[in-house]
Design goal:
175 residues, alpha/beta, single chain
């Protein structure tokens, strides 16, 4: 799988669309539905290079099975992680997943443990997503790709991409 984009120098608007839920990969409510349909509608409206981003929950890996590692992020809050490039089922939109198993591959749902209580490290988990999104948006991961717009959804990923520092030690995966 390779990143698909217009040639370097293109006038395409690059949008990084970050969410904690995107249907059919992760859903607890209506946010996932909006975060599935809005990128599709936007990408059909014009010359937009849409990139979706969400955490690497078990449900994501159960649906999307082909991935290309595009970066290793050793200094994320909560420990190391990596960014994986895949494709959304049915839509073909490109998808970046933060694969940080210690933070996102857990029993319960995306925000709550099996007893229905907030995970005690939710702030740290989603800070890792924000830092990874900032690093991606600033053009430090994919050659020739820097976000013109970072569209964040919900209270979790929308708190820090513009102000987050890039991840120290981030490295592009080598093929």
């Amino acid at each position: 799988m390779k990143y698909r984009s217009a040639a370097n120098g293109s006038n395409r608007l690059r949008v990084l669309f970050v969410s904690s839920e995107i249907f059919p990969l992760a859903k607890t409510g209506g946010l996932a539905d909006v975060c599935s349909s809005l990128p599709i509608a936007l990408s059909q409206e014009g010359d937009i290079d849409m990139m979706l981003m969400l955490p690497g929950y078990d449900s994501v890996f159960a649906v999307v099975r082909e991935w290309e590692e595009i970066a290793r992020l050793p200094d994320l809050p909560g420990g190391p992680g990596r960014l994986l490039l895949g494709t959304m089922p049915e839509t073909g939109l490109q998808l970046i997943v933060l694969d940080q198993p210690q933070a996102f591959r857990r029993p319960g749902n995306f925000y709550l443990d099996e007893q229905g209580k907030d995970w005690g490290d939710n702030a740290q988990r989603f800070a890792a997503l924000c830092h990874a999104a900032a690093t991606m948006a600033m053009g430090l991961i994919l050659p020739f790709w820097r976000a013109d717009i970072v569209h964040c959804n919900d209270c979790i990923p929308d708190s820090s991409p513009p102000s987050s520092p890039p991840i120290r030690g981030a490295s592009r995966a080598r093929s």
